[in-house]
Specification:
Shape: globular
Number of strands: 14
Radius of gyration: 25 Å
Distance between the termini: 66 Å
Number of helices: 15
């Protein structure tokens, strides 16, 4: 049976292996940027995180752009941090990205149209690891399953407001409840990420459909055709949400506004009645529809938050390729569904998106997960069918699985249990899961090491999502170590150009990340010479509660205001021992080598 048109505020992530970014240190907040830009000062060009004045307009194609020293560095570019914009956006696109980032963290009130029933009061309440990423919030779906011979028939109970339950309301008399009876099935669904959204949107339908029509042995992925909500009667292959129920970023955003926050828009012009009770809706809904109205520039919340999500960069992956574990991941069959190699082939996509490789580790098809499905039908997605979860950014996700049942513990613990859940009766992934568990323990660890690379930035040696002086010291050890390094070695995280060696180019790229400046008047080697990428040198501290676009957001979703801030390594993985030139090297010699490295790098080796 067809289910309700209610959908969940879920997203999906993505990764571009060759995407470039300039990492900016100490930017003003988004609000300050937007305010300055609005004043129209011709000498103050618009700046977004990672996109400053000298480095704008693709000044250093194929290289990393150093805004501080106005130089192009090396023949490799660094990947954006999670939550940062795509490289190559035009000024107006960056403007919309930053305006949308501010609105994404907006908290709606009842006077602004929140509700009358809702799940959260802002986008960032769910998608907060980091801003725009995944999260820990779940929502509830419910319905009724009846047996008809050998068939299970699902009823979304639309007459009671199903299948999505809104847990919150603006007043007790407006609240929703699960009708029991007739409800006999309920499931939780976890917040997905919206990173890399624009890249996924630009994958051609034909490319997704090809894998449905030409599946590997034992796999039968289904491409679901869904309406493009902003452009009826157009349809496309769905790719967003656990049931591939949405096809475009704008459709996803409008749907989430209504279903999760109760905010009407130019696409959905009427609020959802509490439990489908129109009398209660008339009493509870006191704000005129649509509640999302354009600002003075003619841009509404829907447009700007769509732009923010569309222009979010995909999560990084370090090393970008070559790990033994990725080969094993494919050999046991995981890559039959968690695949890479899509291209953002939509000719109408923005320049920064069109033609980019989309290594999301998903085929964006529905697959039967057997006894570990959610037993909720939605559109053309069956009871036990779930979309292949994109794995980019995996290392920072906790919990895992569509209902969040795999939570806590170490990264290896979560991976073990998530793979184990694939080995369910009736699951298409059963053979792959069994093949994984048949691997030798050392090979399973190599698969885990590969999965841990999904979401890691270059030079994040300790894996805590913050690149600082502690990482620089570990990179220094790799410089002194004996190469060549393979992609499986600990030092591969510092080998940004994957040359096999951590050399002067990698050191210079690291210095760009750290924000080391060319200061002839101060060649001192104290810690003040390094600007923490999580410190915007402003008075805004963590007590403000919001995420400033001038701050780097760590991969775990936390914001740091200095070397003592940040997050602990979410994965609790201990780095491999680092081989150095002399394990007994005195600390003063170590500090001297660090000083020499910085001085040489400043002079442009």
């Amino acid at each position: 049976m067809s289910s309700t048109t209610k959908f969940i505020c879920f997203g999906i992530v993505g990764f571009v292996a060759t995407v470039a970014v300039v990492l900016m240190i100490g930017a003003p907040s988004a609000e300050a940027q937007l305010s300055d830009f609005a004043q129209g000062d011709p000498d103050d060009e618009f700046r977004a995180p990672g996109f400053q004045v000298w480095c704008k307009n693709n000044r250093c194609p194929g290289q990393t752009c150093d805004e501080v020293n106005h130089t192009c560095v090396g023949n490799v570019t660094l990947q954006p941090a999670m939550g940062e914009p795509l490289v190559g956006l035009h000024a107006n696109q960056l403007n919309h990205f930053n305006e949308g980032a501010v609105l994404f963290d907006k908290t709606f009130t009842a006077d602004e149209g929140l509700g009358p029933v809702f799940n959260q009061n802002g986008c960032g309440s769910c998608h907060n690891m980091p801003q725009g990423g995944s999260g820990t919030i779940t929502v509830t779906r419910f319905g009724q399953i009846t047996v008809d011979g050998s068939d299970l028939i699902f009823n979304p109970l639309a007459e009671f407001g199903g299948s999505l339950l809104n847990k919150e309301s603006i007043s007790p008399e407006c609240a929703e409840t699960i009708p029991v009876p007739p409800t006999n099935v309920a499931a939780q669904r976890l917040t997905n990420s919206t990173l890399g959204f624009g890249l996924v949107e630009a994958i051609l339908d034909a490319d997704i459909e090809f894998n449905a029509l030409n599946p590997p042995a034992g796999v039968s992925g289904v491409a679901q055709i869904v309406p493009v909500l902003e452009d009826p009667p157009m349809t496309r292959i769905g790719r967003f949400g656990w049931k591939t129920q949405l096809a475009t970023v704008e459709s996803f955003t409008a749907d989430a506004m209504l279903q999760e926050m109760g905010i009407t828009s130019r696409i959905f012009t009427e609020d959802n009645p509490p439990n489908n009770d129109l009398v209660r809706l008339a009493a509870c809904d006191t704000v005129a529809d649509p509640e999302d109205v354009p600002n003075a520039e003619g841009d509404d919340f829907l447009k700007l938050t769509t732009a923010f999500q569309r222009f979010l960069a995909p999560p990084p992956q370090t090393p970008r390729s070559g790990m033994t574990g990725e080969g094993l991941f494919g050999a046991v069959g995981c890559a039959d569904c968690h695949m890479t190699g899509f291209v953002a082939g939509d000719d109408e996509a923005e320049d920064a998106i069109r033609g980019e490789v989309v290594n999301a580790y998903s085929d964006f098809l529905l697959h039967d997960m057997g006894g570990n499905g959610d037993f909720i039908e939605q559109g053309g997605a069956g009871l036990t069918e779930i979309r292949t979860t994109p794995l980019w950014g995996l290392r920072v996700r906790d919990p895992l699985w569509h209902d969040g049942r795999v939570a806590g513990g170490t990264f290896d613990f979560r991976i073990f249990n998530a793979i184990l859940l694939h080995d369910a009766f009736g699951s298409e992934a059963q053979a792959s899961a069994q093949a994984y568990f048949a691997l030798a323990p050392v090979d399973r660890m190599k698969v885990g090491d590969f999965l841990d690379s999904l979401g890691k930035r270059e030079f994040d040696m300790d894996g805590n999502g913050i690149i600082d002086d502690a990482d620089a010291m570990l990179v220094d050890d790799c410089v002194a170590g004996v190469g060549p390094y393979s992609a499986d070695d600990f030092c591969a995280v510092a080998d940004a150009d994957q040359s096999g060696y951590v050399d002067a180019l990698d050191v210079e790229l690291l210095n760009v990340v750290l924000g080391l400046v060319d200061d002839d008047d101060d060649e001192s080697d104290d810690d003040s010479s390094i600007d923490d990428p999580n410190d915007d040198n402003s008075s805004d501290d963590d007590s403000s509660g919001g995420l400033s676009r001038g701050h780097f957001v760590s991969e775990g979703g936390a914001r740091s205001s200095g070397h003592n801030g940040g997050i602990q390594d979410m994965n609790n993985r201990t780095p491999d021992p680092v081989v150095t030139g002399d394990a007994t090297e005195p600390e003063e010699d170590r500090q001297r080598r660090r000083a020499e490295r910085r001085t040489v790098s400043r002079r442009g080796l």
